[in-house]
Amino acid sequence: MELAGLVLVALALVAVVSVARARHIGVPAKVGWTVVVLFLPVFGPLLWFAAGQRYPYGVDGWPRR
Questions:
Q1: Which pLDDT tens digit goes with each residue over 9-26?
Q2: In angstroms, rounded to a whole number, what is the distance separating the alpha carbons of residues 42 and 11?
Q3: What gap in Å lies between CA 47 and CA 38, rounded to an integer?
Q4: Which residues are CB-contacts of 14 (< 8 A; sequence separation ≥ 6)?
């Protein structure tokens, strides 16, 4: 397997684990995000980390409320 393939598999695996551990979404949303991550190998994980994942800090560096 090429290096790019390994990177895609690792990215998808990290994204699926992140979806499974997310506390801010319910089970149906987790199933939906997992399907998106697995069926869109490049854009699915990127979408999850950009739009689905919640980060504790905002763009200004202060904690979210």
A1: 999 999 999 999 988 889
A2: 8
A3: 12
A4: 45
Distance of CA 9 to the CA centre of its chain: 13
Tell me the pTM. Answer: 0.78
Give the Cβ contact number of residue 12 at 10 Å. 19
Residues 6+ apart with CB under 8 A from 44: 12, 15, 36, 37, 38
Helix intervals (H) in the chain: 3-21, 27-39, 43-47
Instruction: Give 41's DSSP letter.
Output: T
Q: Write down the residue that tokens 């919640």 correspond to.
A: 54
Where the chain has pLDDT below 70, the residues are 1, 55-61, 64-65
